[in-house]
Design brief:
The protein is α/β, with parallel strands linked by helices. It is 47% helix and 13% strand. The longest helix has 22 residues, at 611-632. The chain is globular, with a radius of gyration of 28 Å.
Length: 788
């Protein structure tokens, strides 16, 4: 797909690594790359010039970490660094036609709910960079190496709202097809493309061969141009050198020529020779046509729900007729919403409706908070349900993924307020078949309204597959328009417009006896008419059973697996698919319900439960279950940390009863080694270790070896954890281990970080190589198995 970012009819070449070149130019280990814009600007310009002479059409300015958070503690300012860095790149571009991208990398801190950095604060940090970049004369913005979709959304929103420049966004994926935070390429495309990215890509982490299948999936999922910047294979931890030569790199890139990508460059380990080889590779080729396949889908950060079958929408987060929920919303207690979300997910809902329109509630303030709260414990896509356009705007801004807005109608004023919001924030929309005259009596009139909603949505820039139609279920007891008209209208919309449909099923039985019978009969008829999204209570087993039977009989359930599986589960009615066999406290921790886990712990203690028995018999098994799901790839980092936080809340209740010293576990020292300022992985390990009862002494980042030695001696730690993300700081890790050994300390050492391998860990004297935070817990438990 061609656009203003990449050249028409031929491949656009992006530059290669900056860090690799800066190190070759004399950047000291642990030094800030941004300092070179002042200390050695001529070297920066020469690096850019070398890439341009090799064939690069776009060079990335040396601004990857030029944000206020990473520059804190130095004399550098965001505006000064960006102005100088862009100037260096622009100087190299003079007379060549090459363009300069403002390079924006991750902030180095996890965003809520996985971390503590607020979405709004991340947005402000990126906005400062964006405004400075455009002022400095950048030609476009490149947001790169993102692993957290929420952070990528914050950066993209800031770029679109604080500049007029084109924006390209790339994320870094692991070989399992997901980022460090569990984001898939399809979730990336579903969220960032509609949000306004001009191109989407994959960079870093992997070499060309490993990225190729992911890029193929991205080309199919993204309605934008697609680009790649692979690493030069894998690094050798001992030397920091990557294992692919320029020619071998290009050999692995041949598969991209007919894939549908529009631009290619290099990331870690590449240099101008790689770009020169790429230029030779693509010189006689044009990008293949877009491979994009339009699909109706919704997403959270870690789950994409394609609407290619029946997808039940949970209706219970709606205060209408629910006194307890109304009271919770009025008091600002969102833990009840979280419980409702977890229950509906466990009952089989594919999507959740979120409505906070209770009397006396400020929806503009509360709906975004509700969205954040639900997304903290549940990875199902959400329907944002409000008649207040300002509340929808506030919620859309903080939603992580691609939501469905409920709703617009055929009223002109409504369409003109809601449809632009959906376009701005990349959401799909529900159109209600009513207009200024009310709800029409006939199917044909409702169809006409649906057709107009579609036309207006297309006019405002939405894609056809993002328009959903609700033909409105009316009570059968009310007289007037019959449910038959709703069914006929649904069928017309489905067969004539080809749009996805949804209905609030239980409305049909209002005022009638034996409502469940009426509801499930109507549901059957509606499914036959083409209903895609039935809005219902997924806890009503008869309704979910009806869907399962319908799918079975219509050939939508291959080999009857879902139907058989459902009724195997119902042999134990009290169990749910997610927490089958779990006690209440374990289930709450596994679901990440912090408030409820604390309350349940308090109740158990009041009834005489032994605190340590709860820790060993409930909390740790729950964390083990979630950890096993994480290792199996069925759960992801957000769920892992949510469960850890729930366990922490439960543990604090027990700690308050027993006292601090009675429950303090054995000490574990953790630190990021000298010269390295990256600490996300270390921080995640800390959270998990604490929730297994360890007392973690966190020394922070950029920690000298002697500081770590002193801490290990002071606390008598049997385990020290060292983290490094940069190849240039691996020698510091080796020195730290050597210092611990020279001091005669008997402590074990575990090491982790993206650039490490198990063989290197053993070579430098580590006792454990921990590829992720979960493995750090396993190491600690092995050492302290008699104490925990």
């Amino acid at each position: 797909m061609e656009n203003q970012v990449f050249k028409k009819g031929r491949f656009t070449l992006l530059d290669g690594a900056m860090g690799t070149m800066l190190q070759a130019a004399g950047l000291a280990a642990g030094a800030r790359p941004e300092e070179m814009v002042f200390t050695a600007p001529e070297k920066l310009t020469e690096i850019h010039r070398a890439y341009i002479q090799a064939g690069a059409d776009i060079v990335y300015a040396n601004t990857f970490g030029a944000n206020a958070k990473k520059l804190a503690g130095s004399d550098l300012t965001v505006s000064a660094v960006i102005q100088a860095a862009v100037s260096c790149a622009k100087k190299a571009c003079e007379g060549t036609g090459a363009r300069v991208a403002l390079d924006i990398g991750p902030l180095g801190e996890l965003l809520e709910p996985t971390g503590t950095l607020a979405f709004e604060d991340a947005y402000s940090l990126f906005a400062e960079m964006t405004a400075a970049g455009e002022k400095a004369g950048a030609d476009l913005i490149a947001i790169e190496t993102m692993t957290d979709l929420y952070e990528a959304r914050a950066a993209l929103l800031a770029a679109k709202e604080h500049s007029t420049l084109p924006v390209i966004v790339s994320m870094s994926f692991e070989e399992n097809g997901r980022t460090f935070a569990g984001v898939s390429v399809e979730a990336m495309a579903a969220s960032l493309g509609p949000l306004g990215a001009d191109a989407l890509g994959i960079n870093c982490s992997l070499g060309p061969r490993a990225i190729l299948p992911l890029a193929k999936r991205l080309c199919k999922a993204a309605n934008t141009a697609v680009f790649v910047k692979p690493n030069a294979g894998l690094p050798d931890p001992l030397t920091g050198q990557y294992n692919l030569t320029a020619e071998a790199f290009c050999g692995e890139c041949e598969g991209y020529l007919n894939l549908g990508v529009s631009a290619i460059g290099g990331c870690c380990g590449t240099d101008p020779d790689f770009i020169k080889a790429l230029a030779r590779l693509v010189q006689d080729h044009s990008p293949a046509p877009s491979a994009y396949v339009p699909q109706s889908l919704l997403s959270s950060a870690t789950r994409v729900v394609t609407i290619d079958g029946i997808r039940p929408v949970g209706e219970r987060i709606n205060p209408t007729g629910k006194k307890r929920l109304q009271q919770a919303l009025a008091s600002g207690d969102l833990s009840h919403l979280q419980s409702l979300a977890a229950e509906q997910e466990s009952s089989g809902a594919a999507i959740l409706d979120v409505n906070v329109g209770a009397p006396g509630v400020d929806e503009v303030q509360l709906l975004p908070k509700a969205v954040k709260a639900v997304q903290a414990v549940c990875d199902l896509p959400l329907v944002l349900d409000s008649s207040n356009a300002d509340a929808l705007a506030a919620a859309l801004r903080v939603y992580n993924g691609k939501p469905l807005v409920n709703s617009t109608s055929g009223e002109r004023e409504k369409m003109e307020s809601i449809l632009p919001l959906c376009k701005r924030y990349g959401a799909a929309v529900i159109g209600l078949t009513l207009d200024e005259s009310g709800i029409p009596a006939t199917a044909e009139e409702r169809f006409a309204i649906a057709e107009n909603i579609l036309l207006q949505a297309l006019r405002f820039g939405l894609e056809r597959q993002d328009v959903y139609i609700d033909c409105l279920t009316l009570a059968a007891s009310a007289g007037g328009a019959t449910p038959e008209e709703t069914l006929r209208a649904t069928l017309l919309v489905k067969e004539t417009l080809g749009l996805k449909t949804l209905l609030g099923v239980s409305n049909v039985s209002f005022g009638l006896p034996n409502r469940p019978l009426v509801n499930r009969t109507f549901l059957n008829l509606a499914l036959w008419a083409g209903l895609d999204l039935p809005i219902l209570n997924p806890g009503a087993s008869d309704m979910m059973d009806t869907i399962a039977a319908f799918e079975l009989l219509m050939g939508l359930d291959p080999d009857s697996q879902r139907y058989i599986g459902r009724f195997r589960e119902t042999e134990s009615p009290a169990a749910t698919p997610k927490n089958k066999g779990a006690t209440p406290l374990r289930a709450l921790i596994e679901s990440g319900l912090r408030t409820e886990a604390a309350s349940e712990t308090r109740r158990l203690l009041e009834e005489g439960a032994e605190g340590l028995a709860l820790v060993n018999g409930e909390m740790m098994p729950a964390l083990d279950t979630v950890g096993q799901g994480f290792e199996a790839g069925t759960l992801f980092l957000p769920q892992l940390l949510a469960s850890a936080e729930a366990a922490k809340a439960a543990f604090e209740v027990i700690r308050n009863q027993y006292g601090q010293s009675d429950l303090d576990g054995p000490p574990v020292i953790v630190a990021t080694v000298q010269g390295d300022i990256h600490d996300i992985g270390k921080n995640i390990a800390k959270v998990l270790l604490e929730n297994y009862g360890f007392r973690v002494i966190d020394l922070g980042r950029d920690v000298p070896p002697q500081t770590i030695v002193a801490a290990a001696k002071e606390h008598g730690a049997k385990l020290v954890g060292l983290s490094a993300l940069m190849t240039t700081t691996l020698p510091a890790m080796e020195k730290t281990i050597a210092a611990l050994r020279e001091e005669g300390l008997s402590c074990k050492v575990m090491v982790g970080g993206a650039v490490l391998t198990e063989s290197f860990a053993m070579k430098i004297g580590a006792d454990y190589y921990v590829k992720d935070a979960r493995k750090s817990v396993e190491a600690a438990l092995e050492i302290h198995k008699k104490e925990i």
